[in-house]
Amino acid sequence: MEKRRENTCIAYTTTLDVSSYYYAADMANKVGDNVSAIRYLQESPGSDTSSYTQFMLASIYYDQKEFSQSLSCINYFQQLSESNASNLQIQKLKYQVQKELGLNAEAQRTLADVQRIDPSFVRSSEGKTIAVIIPHRIKPYIERAEELRKNGQISDAIAVLNEANSIKELPYTNLLLGKLMLSQNNVRALYFLERAQREIKDDPSLYFGLCVLYLKTQNIPKAKSALNTFARLQGEQHENTRQLRTLFEKRVKQKK
């Protein structure tokens, strides 16, 4: 049973079922193909009841300056699960959208909720989003790697991404390499995720992968830090937060 639970955790970063749609949507979004990203998300299994899908749609609509649609997705996200209402990422996005729509009173209430979780938000993140810029000469490698991944050719996809990194190393390419290697239970994924972490700060899948790998390598302090960051981004009641905590507690007991 414990082994099954661990595999469930690792499956969060693999390419099975609905994750394939999320991965494809993320790839499309990162290269600026928002039309395809929205289509992948809307076609994903259970899209109408998935808080993750609604958050991604809200983010994409925000980037496209379609603020009313973004707010609609945010509100639906918060209706799906009460425990998600205090999620830091969605609250930050909600604040930004409300400001853009001129809903100043509502924005101030949302800001107060955000600052209770992250007091530094106004100083460091006021209305800003971080764009991932992929050079044109690297984009074909990432697209090719995605095709290979979708066909189950994970090792070939890794080879293509390594070739891209030999031309120009990017945090996003390192993130993809780390995820793919983790799906193969390859602890070398840690090298790439740690390099990605230098510039990518708010990607939950990054911290999920780091936590799993730190636990595999018995680095309990770093695992705890990655787990806490994941919980801050996704919320304490998120299914994967609970799974990570279970795995973390198991590893701590084994080390005693």
Description:
This protein is an all-alpha fold. The chain folds into 2 domains: 32-125, Serine Threonine Protein Phosphatase 5, Tetratricopeptide repeat, CATH 1.25.40.10; 139-255, Tetratricopeptide repeat domain (Serine Threonine Protein Phosphatase 5, Tetratricopeptide repeat, Alpha Horseshoe). The chain has 15 helices and no strands. It has helices at residues 2-10, 18-30, 34-43, 51-63, 67-80, 88-100, 104-117, 121-125, 139-150, 154-167, 171-183, 189-197, 204-216, 220-234, 239-255. Helix 2 packs antiparallel against helix 3 (34-43).
Percent of sequence in beta strands = under 5%
Q: What count of helical segments does DSSP give? A: 15
CATH domain class of the largest domain: Mainly Alpha
Which range best describes the helical content: under 10%, 10-25%, 25-40%, 40-55%, 55-70% or over 70%? over 70%
Q: Can you write the helix and strand succession as a string?
A: HHHHHHHHHHHHHHH
- What do we call the CATH homologous superfamily of the largest domain? Tetratricopeptide repeat domain
Describe the oligomeric state of these chains in a short phrase: single chain
Domain count: 2
Radius of gyration: 18 Å
Let me know the average pLDDT.
80
- Cα shape: globular
CATH fold topology of the largest domain: Serine Threonine Protein Phosphatase 5, Tetratricopeptide repeat
Number of strands: 0
Q: What is the straight-line distance between the termini? A: 21 Å
User: Could you describe the largest sheet, including whether it forms a barrel?
Assistant: none
Q: Which architecture name of the largest domain does CATH use?
A: Alpha Horseshoe
Low-confidence stretches: 1-16, 122-131
Structural class: mainly alpha
